Amino acid sequence: MYDSYQGIYELAKPYLQTRYNDLHTEICYSFACRLLENEPGDQEIVLPAVICHDLGWIKLPEDLQKKAFGPKFDPDLRRIHEVEGVKLARLVLEQVGYDPNKIKEIAVIIDGHDSRTFALSDNDRIVKDADKLWRFTATGIAIDMERFGLEPSNYIPWIKEQIDSWFFTQTGKQLARNELAERA
Ligand SMILES: [Fe+2]
Ligand SMILES: [Fe+2]
User: Which end of the chain offers a freer environment for a tag, N or C, measured as fewer CB atoms within 10 Å?
Assistant: First the structure.
């Protein structure tokens, strides 16, 4: 992780100790860096947004988290993690003295990172794609299949079919396909 974001990550970490969100965040962060190599976007918005995007899960009890995502999720519960995530992200970013205008843009991205089905900007597209690329990694697949009681023979072909509708950038689609090729 770049030094300049390490401080943000250290403050974010206590809020990531649920739902494997520490692992999820580190994986999304590395995908965000790879996306930024090929797609337009501002690292100073994208990387803090990725680090802080899921902080809000800590505010949902674990028994409710399971109802808030996955194949049969409750949209109101899922929304809570976005709204609470914005509050915690502001707290963390203000604590490191981050530029208030940048915090504003990061907050808007986090606020709709799951529920908003379209992207607002280049930065938003990268955050959304980095978040979803997790689903194609060995770690993400194993955790998600266990969560939802799914079998690889059904799950892998299903996520493969979603690539074109889930991803906003060509690089995101390519990285997802590369991951699946490694899983085969
Ligand atoms: Fe999320
Ligand atoms: Fe996420």
Answer: C
